[in-house]
Amino acid sequence: MGGGGLLLLVLSVAVAITIGPAELAVGDVFRVVAGKLSGTETGLTAIREGIVWELRLPRTAAAAVCGAGLALCGAVLQSLLRNPLADPFVLGVSSGASTGAVTVVVLGVGGGAVSLSAGAFAGAVVSFGLVLLLAQISGGTTDRVLLSGIAGMQLFSALTSFIVLTSADAEQTRGVLFWLLGSLSGAGWGEVALCAGVLAAVLVTCLARADALDAFAFGPEAAAALGVSVRRVRLLLLLVTALLTAVLVSVAGAIGFVGLVLPHAARAVSGSGHRRLLPTAALAGAVFLVWVDTAARTLLDPREIPVGVATSLIGVPAFVLILHRSRSVR
């Protein structure tokens, strides 16, 4: 995908920003970006500049970063766990983040000093820690990690439902539900910088272990025979993907199916070698979520569709296709 993929991503972001009630052109977007970076005048009104720089660009950039991060995590986990249906939420991170978020919003933990995003991140970390502990106690094998993730997911989903049903009023329930379904409406430059920084660090870490990920495709025994420190590499990659997922979920909520479907699309383009697969999956996820979020915020304007709902509507048919293909391979 390479340079062509980056060009497609830049053009997708620029065009997506022009879509909406305010009339903008692609040239306006580039003028605003160039003006802000160089400190020169753009020739546009303050309102148009604000729409581009303060509203649409950070949201669209957040969509690109979140899509890239979720697809990257999905590609790593599908190879690491040798399961084509694995996605970033298989480790229970999303469910834990949801519990952390409702604990802050509904129960008021932190006395107003803790934000929803901070609560979500803390919940995600606690959930992953529990899943990792359960997996290690039960043997630490790939299937035990998956089963522990499912157990953690169910536990924290139940806790979230219990808190909402017993403590939330109608307004809180509506706000929490919208966030749980995935939303990028509150994303600003601070969130974009945080997510982009973590994404870059995780991508570099995973690319440095690309050969090990290739070896995992043949199973842990074969990887060990090829000189891979199976337990250490598996733990490291689980940790970094869980960290990235926790950061993304704390900012955007649970956006499903991106990490499940996009890695398979990337493999069809780049093959299964991880030095090409990982950046290709990240670019594909970024472009995909930019356009899905654009559709989510404009199709029912002035109302907005939670972006997680939109990705699920697209992802479910793809998920069924993957199930059929995996069954045919067997």
Structure description:
The chain has 330 residues and is mainly α. It is 77% helix and 0% strand. Helix 3 (46-80) crosses helix 13, helix 4 packs across helix 5 and helix 5 packs antiparallel against helix 11 (230-252).
User: Between the first and last Cα atoms, what is the distance in angstroms?
Assistant: 30 Å
Overall strand count: 0
Major sheet: none
Segments where pLDDT lies below 50 for 5+ residues?
none
Helix count equals 14
Instruction: Spell out the helices and strands N to C.
Output: HHHHHHHHHHHHHH
State Rg: 20 Å
Structural topology:
Elements (H helix, E strand, L loop, with lengths): L1 H17 L7 H13 L7 H35 L12 H13 L10 H22 L4 H26 L2 H11 L8 H20 L1 H7 L3 H6 L4 H23 L5 H13 L3 H25 L8 H23 L1
Helix pairs in contact: 1-3, 1-13, 3-8, 3-11, 3-12, 3-13, 4-5, 4-6, 4-11, 5-6, 5-11, 8-11, 12-13, 12-14
Compact description:
This protein has 330 residues and is mainly alpha-helical. Helices cover 77% and strands 0% of the residues.
Summary tags:
330 residues; 0% strand; globular
